[in-house]
Amino acid sequence: MTDTLLFDLDGTLVDTAPDLHHALNSTLSSVELGPVDIELTRHWVGHGAKKMISSALEQHNEQSTDAQLEKLYSSFLAYYRRHIAIFSKPYPGVRLAVQHLARNRCKLGVVTNKRYDLSTLLLKELNLLSYFGVVVGGDTLSVAKPDPDPLLHACKELDTPPERATFVGDSITDVTCARGAGCPIVLVPYGYNQGVSVSTLGADRTIESLVELI
C-alpha cells in the first residue's frame, strides 16, 4: 500500500444520508410537499444537493424553474449547515484506520464533490479534520469528480505523484476520476453507488472496511 491515501467523503468515510435526508424533507416541507423515503435519498446522494432536490420534486410530479430551485437549494443549505452532524457517523473502522495511518506518517486527504465549506465543517464536527493534510471540495476547482483534476490537485498539495497515491471511494464516479488521474483505486461496498455492485466497476481492490488498509 502506498503512503498517500485519498478518500471520498460521503459513502466512504461518513454515512451522511440521514442528515441529508432530514434537510431534504425539511426543504420539501417548506413548499408543502410530503417527505420522501430515506432509501430514495441514499440513491440520490453523490449527484449534488440540487440534483437531489430536483429528483425529490420529480418524485412528487413537480417541476421548478431555475430560480425556484436556487431558492430551495438555499433553504436546504441553511438547514443542512445547522444539522450537518446530528445523525451522520463515520462508518465502522474509519476512525481507527485514519488514526493508525496518520500515526504511521501516511499522507491523508479527502477528495469529494461536497462543497468545501460543508466538507470541512462535517469533518470538524466529527473530530476527523485534523487527520487530513488536504480537503478538495466540489467547488475547490472549476471542475469536480469524475474529472481527474480534483484528485491531481490533492496529489500536488501533498507532494505525491498520482501513481504513488491510492484513492478510496464507493462509486463509478470515483473509479473514473482515479483512472483519469493515474491513481490506483480501492472501493468499499457500503456506500452510495445507486445499487450497483462495486465488484463490477473494475477497481484495483475492494475492501469491506478501511481497517484493511492498516
Task: Walk me through what this model shows.
The chain is an alpha/beta fold and 214 residues long. The chain has two domains: 4-15 and 88-213, 3-Layer(aba) Sandwich (Rossmann fold), CATH 3.40.50.1000; 17-82, Putative phosphatase, domain 2 (DNA polymerase, domain 1, Orthogonal Bundle). It has helices at residues 17-30, 38-44, 49-59, 66-82, 94-103, 116-125, 149-157, 172-181, and strands at 4-7, 14-15, 89-90, 107-111, 134-136, 165-169, 185-187, 205-206. The strands form two sheets. A six-stranded parallel sheet has the order 5-4-1-6-7-8, with helices on both faces. Strands 2-3 form a two-stranded antiparallel ribbon.
Low-confidence stretches: none
Which descriptor suits the 3D outline?
globular
CATH topology of the largest domain: Rossmann fold
> What count of domains describes the coordinates?
2
What is the fourth-level CATH superfamily of the largest domain?
A: HAD superfamily/HAD-like
C-alpha termini separation: 9 Å
- Annotation, overall tally of beta strands: 8
**Largest sheet strand order:** 5-4-1-6-7-8
CATH architectural group of the largest domain? 3-Layer(aba) Sandwich
Write down the overall mean pLDDT: 96
The run of helices and strands is EEHHHHEHEHEHEHEE
Number of helical elements:
8
List the helices and strands and how they pair.
Layout lengths: L3 E4 L6 E2 L1 H14 L7 H7 L4 H11 L6 H17 L6 E2 L3 H10 L3 E5 L4 H10 L8 E3 L12 H9 L7 E5 L2 H10 L3 E3 L17 E2 L8
Parallel strand pairs: 1-4, 1-6, 4-5, 6-7, 7-8
Antiparallel strand pairs: 2-3
Helix pairs in contact: 1-4, 3-4
